Amino acid sequence: MTSATRRSPRQPLVVSWGMALAVLGACATPDPARLDDGRAIRDLPPAALRLGIGPLDGQPIATAEPDAIPHDWTRDAIERGLLDGLRELRAATELVPVADAADAAAQGCDLYLQPRLERPQIDLRYADYGSNWFASLGFWMVTWVGGLFFEDSLYATDLQLGLAFLDRQSIVDGHDLATRSWAGTTLTSGDVELAFFDRNPFFSWPTVQSFVLPPFWTSDSEPETGAILAERALFSVAAQAARYLKLDLERALELEVGTIAFGASAESPLDNESLVPADGRIPLVVRASSSVDRVEVAVDDRPLGADLEPIDIERQQTGAARFIAPFLGERALQLDPAALPADATVIRVVAVLADGNRLHRTLRLFRSEAARSSWLARSAPAD
Q: pTM of the entire structure?
């Protein structure tokens, strides 16, 4: 088993009581799958989109830095890690791998996502003690093996991934990412904490070293350490991408091309992957920089020919070059819940604007809580 002594200097384990207390009070690295308030990103409603995900733009290269942890990065591994992470975190209604933007439009995607490597060289390296090194030391001194399960070592990862978006109408109009893209962002993986058995197999030279050295002073098995750091870095950027899709993308798109909101108001939205309202009424609000000619709706890929039912209360929004078109106001899609499939119903909405543009959104609803729970259980990551 290949092992490498960490080249980044370890600080001597001689600290004052003040430093010891500071270390004990240090916070662990944030969980990328949770928001700052503790909510799990997976539990947030998915973005109401059929999202086409294109191939990675850029070729990763191995770092040449002498103190870096080697790992054989490949485009396929990065693409697969990003898609798997987005699916695990329920980033959008539907996630569809596509060959390019034209393929995304051909497959009926509402939006095309192009990931790109902002920096081809991806660095993985040891940084410092982890937040639990003091607990690891204490349990190692008392039990030996107990100290090997604490995240006692901190590593820096530098995977920089850019996201560029292109809406379906722009693709149909012949635009590409070079001439038009919306709501882009750049994501960077951060620090990762590992326990001894995250970075080493049990039967390894570092395990032998741990009989006489604290676990955070042993060497690391390079293949295991590189692999787990790459996996954590990919999940970190996937979690940031899912957070952006769920919380920030609609606001950015509203300013650029417009948006379709579901629910009676911003204060009472109809969340994606929720239950069909008991009365079958699904309010729609279109916000765009042009008036709305019509709204086309398909339920489970069956177009609805009837006009949308108007809601009595009309609202007008001004400012930032966007408004709810007076022609449309707020309208409600009227469904017959009894006629819907027993499990999931996919609703596709297209708002056709007076300037020729189209806004596309895809919503998934359920007839019962049992059907919703079953769906979420099937899509949950394996333990």
A: 0.84
